[in-house]
């Protein structure tokens, strides 16, 4: 049993040492993960939403007809009241 406890103590020391180590991560040079790409997509999104809003505003100002059709006249009815 002393061999097993020595092994466990050795493993505990290895885990304690490894816990403090920082694992190096390779730096990604991928364009799609860069800040430039994020800003570019944000600008495109905001431009698209604003452009659609502007298009809708122009439609409602110059194209859409807001007049209501005349109310139908019913014959042989009694007025209310």
UniProtKB/TrEMBL annotation:
The chain crosses the membrane at residues 42-62. Keywords: Membrane, Transmembrane, Transmembrane helix. GO terms for cellular component: inaD signaling complex; rhabdomere membrane. Pfam families: InaF-motif. The keyword Cytoplasm does not apply. GO terms for molecular function: calcium channel regulator activity. It comes from the Eukaryota. The keyword Transmembrane applies. GO terms for biological process: regulation of membrane potential in photoreceptor cell; response to light stimulus. This is Uncharacterized protein. It comes from Drosophila erecta. The gene is Dere\GG18836.
């Amino acid at each position: 049993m002393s061999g097993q406890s020595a092994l466990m103590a050795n493993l505990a020391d290895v885990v304690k040492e490894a816990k403090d180590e920082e694992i190096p991560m390779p730096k990604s040079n991928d364009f799609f993960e860069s800040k430039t790409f994020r800003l570019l997509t944000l600008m495109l999104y905001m431009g698209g939403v604003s452009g659609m809003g502007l298009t809708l505003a122009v439609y409602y100002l110059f194209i859409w007809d807001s007049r209501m059709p005349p109310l139908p006249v019913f014959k042989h009815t009694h007025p209310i009241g």
